[in-house]
Design goal:
7 helices; single chain; about 200 residues; mainly alpha; Ferritin; about 75% helix
Length: about 200
């Protein structure tokens, strides 16, 4: 045996990871994204309180124009917070769903809705949290790796679509929870009365 051949041996490929390990990697990435979104939510919440207080103080000092500016900024902040909160709940729902997948057949059933939700999240967060949007793309790639790595045929994967019933259910559920939490937390007081005070 030639010594040079010993050193030229090809490195053996590691065996493919089991499905559970791949799904755990995906859920870990989603959890990190979720944590970043929670941090941003806290920042938005603090800023919203500041804006509301500034609006109130402006009205108390008869600076109506200033109050309207603060109210407009607060209104935009509310919309952003709602989007971020919906995204947060969607990610939490995905994490929970991925943790319950036990076999390849079950993964095949839910992969299209999961990819649809990820695609929707990427679009929602692109203008608000660009880094989270890029991280979601990495999660999409990890999901695809989980599918292709276990030997499924790509023909069985349907392109993600918001028309998919499962995607709609997840998004509706996330929207309802987000709306309810916004009401329950009362982070931002209803300032419509203050603005309409003319």
């Amino acid at each position: 045996m030639n010594l040079m051949n010993l050193f030229r041996r090809k490195k053996s490929q590691p065996p493919p990871k089991p499905l559970r390990d791949k799904l755990n990697e995906v859920t870990t990435k989603l959890t990190l994204i979720s944590e970043r979104i929670k941090q941003r939510q806290n920042q938005y919440s603090a800023r919203s309180k500041e804006l509301f207080e500034a609006c109130v103080k402006s009205l108390m000092s008869s600076e109506k124009d200033k109050a309207i500016v603060y109210a407009n900024e607060l209104s935009n902040m509310r919309k952003t917070m709602s989007t971020v909160m919906k995204s947060q709940f969607s990610i939490e729902g995905l994490i929970n769903r991925l943790q319950t997948i036990n076999d390849v057949a079950e993964l095949r059933e839910v992969i299209s809705p999961i990819k649809g939700v990820l695609d929707d999240l990427k679009g929602q967060l692109s203008g608000i949290l660009p880094n989270a949007s890029r991280s979601i793309r990495e999660v999409e790639e990890a999901v695809e790796d989980a599918i292709y790595g276990i030997g499924t045929v790509s023909d069985t994967i349907v392109e993600p679509s918001v028309n998919d019933e499962e995607v709609r259910k997840i998004l509706m559920e996330a929207s309802e929870v987000a709306a309810q939490r916004l009401k329950d937390e009362k982070v931002i007081e209803d300032f419509n009365e203050a603005v309409s005070y003319r």
